[in-house]
Amino acid sequence: MTSATTFLFFAIHLACIRAGNSPETFVKLECKEEYHGVYGQQSLLQCNVKAVENVTILTVTWKRVEADPLLLEYHKDTSNLTPGFTFAEPSWNKDNMNVSLLLTKTKMADKGVYECMVRTDSGDDTATTSLSVTAKYITPTLSSIPETNIKENTDVTIFCNSTGGHQKGLIWWFDQDGYNWTRRAELVAKETDDGLFSLSSKFIVLKATSSYTNYTCKVLNVNGAVEGKASFVIQLAPQVSGTCCRKKCLSSLLKITPPVISFQVITLGWTLKRCKVCLNDVYPLTLLRTAPTCM
């Protein structure tokens, strides 16, 4: 083998080695495949640059695969950020290999596949990750028609409302003994502009009585898990105080057998003082004076 042939052989061999160790293979972008976010909270999409040697980042971009505009772009020491999206580390710079994306307030519209691209002075790489978003229903609120001073044996309509779920949920009704009345309730579910759901349920208590005044509604998600509950007490009208007090006062009087009139008057005065609030509304004074004669 001539010296020229030998030189050519080594030159080709060296070129092959260099090609096999291209700078492109020196940089790798590693991202977790899937993340779960919660509506209204922060979401973190973690991606890190792995390199066999120290590198300097030249460009970073983040975008949703389903959308064209960039959510975040860093190039030549300048960052362009879409409101609500930023680097996970506020003091991020080109020597920081953590290029994770932070969503400051997650929305339902943020779910999807995200793509991150990194270009360095030793090569570049691209990786994708996906974000799913869930939302929980808030604690329900209850109201009724009529609202207060409800007479016994009156039909009462109770309303239970909740919002915030990311899928259509359910509302169940229970009485104070735990009996499930859901079959007699009406449920309306609507999707709101922000991609969440609102639930409204109506339950009619037939001929409400003082024996059963406490009812509970529970909000369940699509998987059947309870996400919120609240109780409601039907506001029945108070009983006429005179009727109750009259019974108590007359009962006290009937137990008295005064030996003399003076003692009778004293006893009546004590009874009147104890019940004067309600008796003033029920008995005229002349009747009160003659009440002891009923004993």
Question: What can you tell me about this protein's structure?
Answer:
With 295 residues, the chain is α+β, with helices and mostly antiparallel strands. The chain has 3 domains: 22-134, Immunoglobulin-like; 141-233, Immunoglobulins (Immunoglobulin-like, Sandwich), CATH 2.60.40; 241-294. It has 4 helices and 18 strands. It has helices spanning 3-20, 241-254, 261-282, 285-290, and strands at 27-31, 34-38, 43-45, 47-51, 57-64, 70-75, 78-81, 85-87, 101-103, 112-120, 123-134, 141-145, 154-165, 170-175, 185-191, 197-208, 214-220, 226-233. The strands form 5 sheets. The chain has a 6-stranded mixed sheet, with no helix packed on it. A 4-stranded antiparallel sheet has the order 12-13-16-15, with no helix packed on it. Strands 3-9-8 form a 3-stranded antiparallel sheet, with no helix packed on it. A hairpin with a 2-residue loop joins strand 6 and strand 7 (78-81). The longest helix is centred in the C-terminal third of the chain and has 22 residues, at 261-282. It is rod-shaped.
